[in-house]
């Protein structure tokens, strides 16, 4: 006995509750009091015999004992405590069973519950899953079986007949868990079955059938009739402990004994309950199959079960039918009609009617798989599957499933027998479609019910069944996947879904969920893609563009995310929607425009993720450009501009990586307000100029490393000595006249008027041309000035970049484009100490690194073919980004532009550092003179020639326009011309001079004078649309001065003023071919004029300019210009 303190009923309830909750803290309380292990089991078993405990407490204790012992076996099955516990458990059971019934502390219910509890412990813990005893706990098992035999070995005893039935069920469970456990006492059990006449006889018969089933299936060599072993004492058969004696063949005598027992058993079904008959038939069918009995016996005896009104009996018959199909050949139609009749009879319970339809579907599948001729039954019965209007929805759903199966059977079976059968019954494809549509009549109310209604769910479930019925998941035949696409039902469902989406916008979410279900299935994904293609072709073009179009956005999103659907249709629809939103935008539509515009951009992002950029580029770029320019919401415009730049600049795979990477920034949750950590390493950025290069597209002729920068010199008047700066204009004449009228006579004496300027017609014409010209030059102080652009390229070397920034290098090097590193969101920042104004930064969204110089071209690794130079240059362009530097010079001088870079690597690091500076030369300042708006067409060449002549005259030393001021564009600033001149003799052959001018100065040539030179240049065809003047080569060279400073004889260059005319000169009068007149505009308002007098051996360049500091660079420029041609 246990030494623990007995517990009260309330304490037992608390302990049982603590063990069931399995709380460690609560169990420790009982463990500290030693209420664990075998002592707790002894206490609980002894409490069952206490008379002060109520029956409910004892029943709870029995359940606790069962759970507690099972947990002990799970922890340690080999311990002696388990063996001792089982022994005491059997002893306690024996005491309870043998105790007299007083109706209070001991009842039949208590005995039966304890029997079931102990049997459950032995089945789950002793015998195990595989039914192997293993020689362990055999004595305890034998004691339990002996006790159960003592309970059942009192046939026809009326008082405890229920207890005896429970004892039989306990023995049956032990036999089921360990077959042949009771094989040696089968004869005794048969005798008990023959003696029992109460309702417990069913349990005796089932026990005998279970024992015979175990013997026949396991092949135990035992005799049933001639068995002399008594029930008590009982010993476990040796072949179960030593693994021998099973799997033997039966002798003829054994077969006779089995048949005798089967004959006895088949007399009992009429006395059994439906539950008992179901268990009985499960055993009998196996015995009949193993013993090769005539199944016609079973057919005759049990065929009437199908006509009963009990679901269990019908299920029993159908189980026998499915097991012995050949025995019921020819009765398929009768069975199917009976099941249809059960489903139609409303007096039956709904569960029974639903089961009848499930059974009917199983019968149809069995019949259809048997032979093609049997399908005629399904074809004939298809009209009887229509659901009625008042059927419950569950019943309608199953009937629609049967219609789906039948219609697909008719539509997809192409055998000759089936074709002839359809002809006999008058069925064709139109009848199949009618079968489908008429079946949906019972749930046609889904047209006006909300999407969440049950009728709508049933209808779309039917759609799904009709679509996938011919392509089931367990069907491994690849050809079956093509059947639904070609079937009539498939096209009918497609058209119905399109019509529903057009007519009922509320059903679009249901249609989308239907398509998602197909897309999520690995076998039916192609069906969903084909449906999306149908919607793209048949629905998108029919939709009306208005605010209600947002209802179709979920469907558009699926179309955008499917790469097998061309995106052109929805892109065109989105463009129309954006134009509609722009036109209808107003104070009340701001939020609506933002919402729909954001959703459209989300679908554009989806297209970028799932389609190739080349497939989207034309249409999507136009759509994004329109949104970024005209959409009323600023946020939508900015997002569209970002997507447009990504589409244009970033290749497809990299673009998809960026868009996916945006949703999973490492270390930052989507709802966190914390800013991401900036990963910038200054040490890595020190050497970036060695592998990141910004280079000019067109190298400079003069590699100047200096710049002439003069301070503003003032002498009393405050004006610079070398240049007359732009000044504000004087008050208008009207204001001057008004002020003069207000002056007194005395004041008039002391305010003398300016002297009148007298000029001839020639000077007046020059001034007029100059005024017209300067009015076209913007005043940079009050408006945007003229800009020059320097074209450059940015590139970086892959290998040093990867080593520095930790980019993974593939095993085969950077030979594949996908393996090349890249930089993102690059910003080039420019600054300069030269007078270039504010230089705007330049942005580059994406740039791939250059492959290594010794590697094969990307995509041609291992190829030994000769690559043309043009292809090589095109290959190099892919790894360079074009950069344009815009300068707004305040003075035309060379200088240096400092360049700094900020960019991002693929792994999130930030690049920041200085690159090599860019040199700005004097030739970068060369621009064509601005043409006034009123000068057009052929008048341009005459205008340029006239402007050159006027500027040449104005920049001369004896110019008559010295005090004249000219207004600039904008009317607020005026300027004057202060010219200077120079000369340069170049001993270069005429051909080289012509080639140099045509190559570098062709846009600035305004006129060519001289017959030989005109002929040569015209034949070249490079220079055109200028003023041509064919004159005699012996005429004056300075044609622009009309006789002024004209030398008809040989040209002499004097080094001193007092040098005579006969010594120290250079004679260049070989053969005067002609003259180039070149007009160059130097921003912001200056000019450079060349008059090149070309001879066959030398060229004399006369230079005039209104910005004398530029002469410091012109000498080197001219030397480099002509030396480059040598």
Automatic annotation (TrEMBL):
One of its GO terms (biological process) is endosomal transport. Pfam families: AP5B1_C (PF21590), AP5B1_middle (PF21588). Residues 1070-1120 form the AP5B1 C-terminal domain. InterPro entries: AP5B1 (IPR038741), AP5B1_C (IPR048981), AP5B1_middle (IPR048979). Residues 255-654 form the AP5B1 middle domain. Signal peptide: none annotated. Residues 724-744 are annotated as: Disordered. Transmembrane segments: none annotated. One of its GO terms (cellular component) is AP-type membrane coat adaptor complex. This is AP-5 complex subunit beta-1.
